[in-house]
Amino acid sequence: MEKSAEGPTKKKVVAVVGGGLVGALNACYFAKRGFEVEVFETREDIRQAKIVKGRSINLALSHRGREALKHVGMEEKITSQGIPMHARMIHSPSGKQSTIPYGKKGQYILSVDRANLNKQLLTEAETYPNTKLNFGHKLQDWSAETGLMTFVRSDGSQDQIQADLIVGCDGAFSAIRKQFTRRSRFNYSQTYIPHGYMELTMPPINGEFAMKPNYLHIWPRNTFMMIALPNLDKTFTCTLFMPFDDFEKITTGDEVVEFFQKYFLDTIPLIGLDALKRDYFRLPALPMVSIKCSPYHIGDKCVLMGDAAHAVVPFYGQGMNAGFEDCIVFDEVMDQFNEDFSAVLPEYTRVRVPDDHAIADLAMYNYIEMRAHVNSTWFLFRKHVDNFLHFLMPKTIIPLYTMVTFTRTRYHKAVERWHWQDKVINRGLLFSATGAVLGGSYLLIKNPPEINKLILPAEKLWSRVVALRT
Ligand code: FAD
Ligand code: EGO
């Protein structure tokens, strides 16, 4: 099925480097505008491949990502193949399960299959006659002066291609970004966290999901964390996050079982004892990196989007969503500046850098907070507090997770508002604390011996409240 682009076909060539999630979506955006779009992707066509290797099998798609898909008419196609997760399911060490909704009825995140999403986006890009997909093309080098790119083909031969605009969507280890780092006044930072991740499959039981499907299952164990997202084939993909040091300490099947007995007891019968012993050693734990840089462009020639511009740790479920939102933001700036690359690129950097840096920081903040003191009790307590404060003051207090996940509030604005809300909450706490002190003093005068029993637990509680605010 071929479709004609909106507007006349322009001569300008846009090279999208990387045919991953963001590259494939971006190809649709540029094709829709009528550019000659050429996508270059290292891998062979994943639609033909039997097994697609790569990280994370499924992902949480939320509002920002959906809005970006909607723009190119892909929202319905993708969401209809996603599994809604209306709430978190928190698993305690004893196996007790508790749910806390994400928000109102329509507020849910979707578990989507990465490979399927990528394939559908590639197929959609191909329906535009002005798009060409070039697989087995690995970018080796390019020139910021001329826009000339050198690709190595699968057979080792080289290919040189010129483009008017190069869009670097080649992921966290971007070859496009390499040229940026050679230039003056380019800011760059990357941090590997001490944790790695490992994916384990939980098969169906009697043809049905082994756990309730419409939840994001979470086992918060401070430094050890596990989550599970449902798949259409009724399996769950469990992702275990743990320091590399701890991954390495486990060297035998029996040690795996021992570890799971201690921390994730309820999952052993669901994953299966033998599968667990085997799958743990199938693949090594994989690293996670956080990358921030700026600017995102060079002149009117090149721009970075997605993980190439901002790899974030996966503790907010926002990496792809942020990358998809990049496409909307770029598209909006294209409208504002009449597709004049020399004006669009700097403006894109100006508006997008603060937001992408904010989500990188928020994701890192969640990682640090969760590994430091989030067990199942604290997780539940925190989310109940969030929901309760929102219930008390629905217009004033909106949980940060809600702003990030269910709105298109600019990430940096969400952070600002979060700090502002904290001040409001602190004032409220001060007010109640004053009341409590006055009430307490009164009780102390009236009834001295009993009060110590009250003050000690109150102090413990207060130190937790302080932890909550920092
Ligand atoms: P990629 O998906 O990495 O695609 C880059 C593409 O470029 C690849 O196809 C690659 O082959 C190609 N390429 C690389 N180098 C070259 C080259 N030199 N020449 C040509 N092509 C090249 N995000 C969410 O929103 N929700 C989640 O729940 C979520 N969970 C995650 C869980 C884990 C464990 C991890 C690691 C990440 C998770 N993410 C999540 C983040 C998400 O995976 C990324 O943000 C997203 O894949 C970024 O897409 P991208 O297209 O920018 O990069
Ligand atoms: C106290 C309690 C402080 C990814 C809870 C912070 C992330 C963080 C990795 C979940 C949901 C989509 C995710 C919540 C917090 C995906 C997510 C959350 C994980 C891990 C994830 C939530 C894939 C942090 N969203 N989230 O509120 O449910 O809260 F647990 Cl390890």
List the main descriptive attributes of the protein structure presented here.
470 residues; alpha/beta; FAD/NAD(P)-binding domain; seven-stranded mixed beta sheet; six-stranded mixed beta sheet; 44% helix; 23% strand; globular; binds flavin-adenine dinucleotide; binds ligand EGO
Task: Describe the structure concisely for a colleague.
With 470 residues, this protein is an alpha/beta fold.
Topology diagram in text:
Blueprint: E1 13-17, H1 21-32, E2 36-40, E3 58-61, H2 63-71, H3 75-79, E4 83-85, E5 87-91, E6 97-101, E7 109-113, H4 114-126, E8 131-134, E9 137-142, E10 148-153, E11 158-162, E12 165-168, H5 175-181, E13 187-202, E14 215-221, E15 224-230, E16 236-243, H6 244-249, H7 253-263, H8 268-271, H9 273-279, E17 286-294, E18 297-298, E19 302-304, H10 319-336, H11 341-373, H12 376-392, H13 400-406, H14 411-446, H15 448-469
Parallel strand pairs: 1-2, 1-12, 2-8, 5-14, 12-19
Antiparallel strand pairs: 3-7, 4-7, 5-6, 9-10, 10-11, 13-16, 13-17, 14-15, 15-16, 18-19
Bound molecules: flavin-adenine dinucleotide and ligand EGO.
Flavin-adenine dinucleotide binds next to helix 1, strand 3, strand 9 and helix 10.
Structure description:
The model has no long low-confidence stretch (mean pLDDT 92). Helices cover 44% and strands 23% of the residues. The radius of gyration is 25 Å and the shape is globular. It has 470 residues and is an alpha/beta fold. The protein contains 15 helices and 19 strands. Among the domains are: 2-70 and 114-190 and 288-369, 3-Layer(bba) Sandwich (FAD/NAD(P)-binding domain), CATH 3.50.50; 377-469, no CATH class. Ligand EGO is lined by residues 60, 88, 109, 216, 218, 225, 227, 241, 314-317, 366, 369-370, 374, 379, 382-383, 401.
